[in-house]
């Protein structure tokens, strides 16, 4: 049992075991010898109701760990702010936030707080108690329009960004911008209420990009912990040019049919931890990005050092997606002990010509992953057709084109101890470029079994993608496909269908 995070009022811990998201057995959690949580079941869990600057001992499963909560300079609360959910209290809350000293904590007391947009500041902990709820304004005319970028001390800083491009957009509901050492925590709820507003209706014709629910921009040392975050107008949590960011023990919920409601979209991030998060969303649960080519060429930063562990992904298009806006590439992604539950795809890589030669995705590890009802567990698609130019001949032609500064690269991928049940379309579908093969795919000690009543469909989004059902591993333009102790159950046809694949090892 290890400590993930300590706040002035809480501690978040994670069991160190081999189980996936859930522990093998129910267990009780004690603080200073007193029962605090009865019949806990998840590997990651949080304890709230502690006091600042106080020593505690936590005990669970016969393990003990000592810690001291963080001290604060002052405690402020919202007891004088109206909390009926009817009056918009943005100004009152913003004034309260602005008045907080460094290293203070702002406590949201029981009640419902209607806001348009809040801007959090550095060196602040915002704590939503269990019965506290922040709800979003559904009148789009009340939101501030933010520009694509501004110039600060001669440096360009993007402000409005969506799908890899600077855009005019509406200010997000919760904003952490140009800030350090910010924690947004608690057992309360942040509800964007997008289902009541214009946000999910005719989204392509709205005058500005919809607000995110939480936007973290040009910031570092940021923690979100334990909250329920739901019904986002667009992407739910968008970290952009952020360092040392952590998302612990969250519940992120959007309806299955809500458009573009990704769970977490890390973009140009470094040192990002996503641990113990339960996703149920209308698009990708986690989508790692690094801009489209024009934006990526302006920056040297690469999305790198991302850890995803003990998460439960439900009902998204992809459990974990890489792209499609990923022109700066990705380095060092470790995903382990996660449950992919009825997502369309497990790992979903979506790139294409035009993302650029700086789009290099390499050193990717998935291990100890359980999937159930995932249509296609692993997909790598270098012909992804979204965007206005995605269906052009340049992007979609299967002719071998010259490798140039627009050609992306997919490197080494390793999948170990994968258990996928009730698959439908294919176990894995890999489609490189004729001019740029996927370098290496290793699948080790894994089992893929198919639903006997599997429907058919397209495993990847490209213009001439085949419709299939219960296929094994399909590989186009791959340098090395290595299967070791991989079992297929219920597939139709060959275990491996390979086209223009240089080396195939099945042992």
């Amino acid at each position: 049992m290890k400590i993930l995070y300590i706040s002035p009022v809480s501690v978040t811990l994670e069991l160190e075991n081999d189980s996936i998201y859930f522990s093998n057995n129910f267990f009780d959690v004690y603080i200073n010898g007193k029962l605090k949580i009865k019949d806990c079941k998840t590997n990651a869990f949080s304890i709230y109701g502690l006091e600042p600057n106080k020593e505690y001992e936590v005990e669970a499963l016969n393990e003990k760990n000592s810690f001291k909560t963080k001290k604060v300079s002052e405690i402020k609360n919202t007891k004088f702010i109206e909390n009926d959910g009817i009056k918009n209290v943005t100004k009152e809350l913003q004034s309260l936030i602005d008045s907080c000293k460094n290293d203070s904590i702002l406590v949201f007391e029981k009640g419902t707080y209607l806001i348009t947009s809040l801007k959090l500041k550095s060196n602040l902990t915002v704590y939503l108690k269990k019965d506290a709820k922040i709800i979003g304004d559904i009148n789009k005319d009340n939101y501030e329009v933010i520009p694509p970028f501004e110039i600060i001390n001669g440096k360009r800083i993007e402000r409005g960004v969506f799908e890899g491009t600077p855009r005019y957009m509406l200010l997000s509901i919760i904003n952490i911008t140009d800030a350090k050492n910010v924690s947004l925590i608690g057992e309360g709820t942040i509800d964007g209420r997008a289902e009541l507003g214009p946000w999910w209706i005719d989204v392509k014709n709205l005058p500005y990009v919809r607000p995110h629910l939480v936007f973290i921009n040009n910031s570092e040392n940021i923690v979100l912990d334990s909250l329920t975050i739901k019904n986002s107008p667009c992407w739910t949590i968008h970290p952009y040019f952020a360092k040392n960011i952590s998302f612990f023990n969250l519940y992120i919920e959007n309806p299955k049919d809500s458009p573009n409601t990704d769970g977490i979209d890390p973009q140009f991030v470094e040192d990002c931890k996503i641990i113990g998060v339960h996703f149920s969303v209308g698009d990708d649960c986690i989508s790692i990005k690094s801009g489209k080519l024009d934006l990526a060429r302006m920056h040297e930063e690469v999305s790198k050092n991302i850890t995803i562990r003990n998460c439960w992904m439900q009902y998204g298009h992809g459990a974990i997606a890489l792209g499609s806006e990923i022109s700066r590439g990705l380095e060092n992604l470790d995903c382990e002990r996660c449950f992919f539950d009825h997502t369309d795809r497990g790992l979903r890589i979506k790139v294409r010509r035009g993302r650029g030669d700086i789009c290099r995705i390499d050193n990717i590890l998935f291990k100890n992953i359980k999937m159930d009802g995932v249509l296609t567990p692993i997909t790598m698609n270098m012909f992804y057709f979204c965007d206005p130019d995605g269906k052009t001949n340049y992007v979609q032609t299967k002719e071998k084109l010259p490798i140039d500064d627009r050609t992306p690269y997919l490197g080494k991928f390793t999948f170990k101890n994968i258990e996928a049940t009730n698959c439908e379309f294919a176990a894995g579908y890999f489609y490189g470029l004729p001019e740029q093969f996927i370098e290496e795919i290793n699948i080790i000690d894994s089992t893929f079994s198919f639903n006997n009543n599997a429907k058919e469909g397209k495993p990847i989004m490209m213009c001439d993608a085949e419709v299939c059902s219960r296929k094994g591993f399909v590989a186009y333009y791959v340098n090395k496909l290595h299967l070791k102790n991989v079992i297929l159950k219920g597939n139709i046809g060959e275990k491996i269908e390979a086209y223009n694949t240089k080396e195939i090892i099945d042992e």
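The domain at 284-507 is CATH 2.160.20.10 (Pectate Lyase C-like). The chain has a mean pLDDT of 96.
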